[in-house]
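Dear colleague,

Thank you for sharing your sequence with our group. We've completed the structure prediction you requested, and as agreed, I am returning the results in plain text so they can be pasted directly into your records. Please verify that the sequence below matches your submission; if there's any discrepancy, let me know and we will rerun it promptly.
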Amino acid sequence: MPSLSVRPYDGRIPKADRLRRIVEDLLTKRPPSDAVIALTDVYTGTSDFKDAADAKAKMTEWVGGNERFYPHVAQYDFEAWLLPY
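Please find the predicted structure tokens below.
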């Protein structure tokens, strides 16, 4: 039975090769994860993403289309994801 392990990342979501390396490490290093779910906000203080669909597409592209990577993007409700925890 899979379990949930939360590993917060301090700061903005990493881009390109850095995000790919982090995801690959989480999927292969001990203990290996079954999947990686990344949560980011569209509004990162920069113009990295136009909207939620653009952010999700870019994150998927940066990771290389790994089928065990699940990007999630909050366009209006990012704080709602964080407050319960």
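Summary note from our side: Residues 16-82 form one domain.

Kind regards,
the structure core
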